[in-house]
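# step 3/5: fold
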Amino acid sequence: MDVVRVVREYGCFTVCEAVAAGGRRVALKTVCRRAAEGHVARLERERAVLESLEGCGGAAARLHGAGANGRVHWIATRWVPGVRPADLHSRARHLLRTESDPAADLFAATAEAVTAAVAAVHGRAVVHGDVSMGNVLLTPEGTAVIIDFGSARLPHHPPTAATPIAWRTTRPFTPPERLHAEGGAGAGGGPTFASDQYSLAAVLHGLLTGRARAAAAGAPDGGPDGVTGSVTHDGPGSVTGDGPDLGWAARRRPDLPAVLARALRAAPARRKRRVPLPPTARPFWRQP
C-alpha cells in the first residue's frame, strides 16, 4: 500500500489514508513495533468486530484487509469521506447555537444519522465502547459511519487473562461507571449497551451546548478528544436544572431534554437500552 498522509496518531496507533492495489482508497491503521501484546490484541479485536459488521447497512466501514509486516500489525478499511461531529461543531458552532431553521435542519439530520448508525451496530450485538465526536464520520450522503472499534465488545470474543484488554474511552462521552474503571471486562470495566447509549446522548448534548468540545480543548490525555469530566443528568453540566440547557432545541422540541436526561443518568440501570430520540425528520423541527 502507498501511504498518502497521516490522518491521526494516538498512543501506539497511527491511521493513514492510503492507496491499495487497484487504486482503492483505504484507511490504514497500524500499531507500532514496540506495541505491547494488549495493543495487538486490540487491533485483532477490531478486525473481528468489523468482520461481524459486514453488511450492516454502511454503519461501519468495510474491512479491506489485515495482516502484519514483521512486527508492524495493520488493518485496512474502506476510505470514508466525511466530517466528524467535532469538526462540524467547530465549523458550525454559531449556527448551532442560534435558533433558525438551518440550525434545526443540521442538528436533526445529524442526530438521526448518528443514532441510526449506533442502532445498526447494536443490532449486530456489538458494543462500540467509545462513541464520541471523534469516532463518527458524517458523509456527504447524509449518513453516519462509526469508526475505531478498538474498544468494542463482541459477546463471543471476551478478553482473557493472557491477552488483557485496555478499554480506551474518550471523556466526557464516557459514562460515570467507566470513568474510574481499572480495565478488563469485569464490573465497571468493559463497555455495555447502556454505556454506548450514554455516550451517544453526550455527543448530541455537546453539539447543542458546546460543553464537550470546550472541555476537550484543554485535555491532558485520552486521545485527540480526551477531556477531564463527564455530563450526567443530575450533576454538574446537567441537561436540566442548573446546568447548561438545550436552548432553542428545547423550545422547538420540549420532549428533548427529558429524552437526553434519561440517557445521561448516572446509573446504567436507569437508562433505556436505546436512546428514544423524538422524531428527527427535519419538518418536525421547523417552527410552525
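# step 4/5: annotate
The longest strand covers residues 2-10.
# step 5/5: archive (pending)
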